[in-house]
Design a protein that fits this description.
The structure is a homodimer of 216-residue chains. By secondary structure, chain A is of the alpha/beta class. Helices cover 47% and strands 17% of the residues of chain A. The interface between A and B is large, with 58 and 58 residues.
Chain lengths: 216, 216
């Protein structure tokens, strides 16, 4: 296996996994890169190239075994085990995220929820009592969570992430609209709707400019 | 300007814009690709390459003018105008997303909120009455929204997106955990926390495997 797989390829693998899971549920056992490309709206060449990073999956002209591909992706993505997740910040967004229905079925167990607000600490959210963020660092030494989801305010985010990384968390999903520094041994992904909208308005703007140009 | 800029580059431009805005707020007027790279945790070569898609911004050895770069990015990303956004699905997640503090300041105006639940329709959310999703298509002919944020359940998502695209919406931000089909003239981005976690567990899994290998 080559050491450096482009991050953009890694980001596509969970989408492959989700789509192949659905295809398997439909009872299909073999799929061509052509068919998989149509499902995913990418070219068959892209799919062959992405999967080639992880070894030879398909036989020329015979398509991929859906189950074998799912098994390999599960292994590659670390989905053959369960991961322990803490959610820090149980405001409106934190509640919505923590109750997202997809986590448990995909191997992600939310082991604790934290907030700093005395009115929120101790309340029951999805069957679990919200804990005081002051106990986060000592809790992590016992619950050994690997992943932290951060839904606090922007001004609190860096402090919370520092506590998480000191406590051994190795992946952070940051919902706050701010850049955060993490050590090189910690993964971080940012979910900021504004950034998603701005990369789409690039295309919208271009289309509008082209239309205006056509109109003279 | 070349016609095809890789999507991965376009996705980085809003992050450049955000970082440069902060740098300008700090009163700095010139920045080198080296300094910008350190701020963004990417190599200076990557920054020069990304920005080269959009013409020549910097003078060799003199750095970039922060204001000029901001102006160009604003133009390229379509941030020199305002965009009209509708949010469909005013449950817990929809409320959290619709009240995200960053939209207005970045040129995104939420012009209407929709839900299908009679108990939610007509209620006041952030100073605006939630409208019946049954009126979405006719409303779009009047409010001319360009962007739709979809926070309904997975089973309703495709129907809602069909209505949005029929009504002229050209960019969809999909918060539902499901793939959605859109015409080629419509942009779509997906925010699914599970997919973000899965691309991070790829790295976590590798590190654990390497550590176990070292231990023998």
């Amino acid at each position: 296996m080559p050491l450096e797989i482009p991050e953009v390829v890694i980001d596509r693998l969970p989408v492959y996994f989700r789509t192949l899971t659905r295809i398997a549920d439909e009872g299909r056992t073999v799929i061509s890169s052509q068919e998989l490309g149509e499902e995913l709206d990418v070219t068959p060449a892209q799919i062959r190239k992405d999967l080639s990073y992880f070894g030879r999956f398909g036989k020329q002209g015979r398509g991929y075994s859906v189950q074998r591909l799912l098994g390999e992706l599960k292994d590659i993505l670390g989905l053959d085990r369960r991961w322990r997740v803490v959610v820090v910040g149980i405001g409106r967004l934190g509640r919505a995220v923590a109750s997202y229905p997809g986590f448990e079925g995909q191997g992600f167990d939310i082991v604790a929820r934290y907030d700093a607000n005395p009115e929120v600490i101790g309340t029951n959210v999805d069957g679990d009592l919200v804990r005081d963020v002051a106990t986060l660092e000592s809790d992590l030494r016992e619950n050994h969570a690997e992943i932290g989801i951060v839904t606090v305010t922007a001004s609190q985010a860096q402090d919370v992430v520092n506590v998480l990384t000191r406590g051994g968390v190795r992946a952070i999903l940051n919902y706050t609209p701010t850049g955060i520094q993490v050590p090189p041994t910690v993964e971080i992904k940012h979910i900021n709707p504004v950034l998603f909208l701005q990369s789409m308005t690039y295309h919208l703007k271009r289309r509008i400019d082209e239309r205006d140009a056509l109109r003279g």
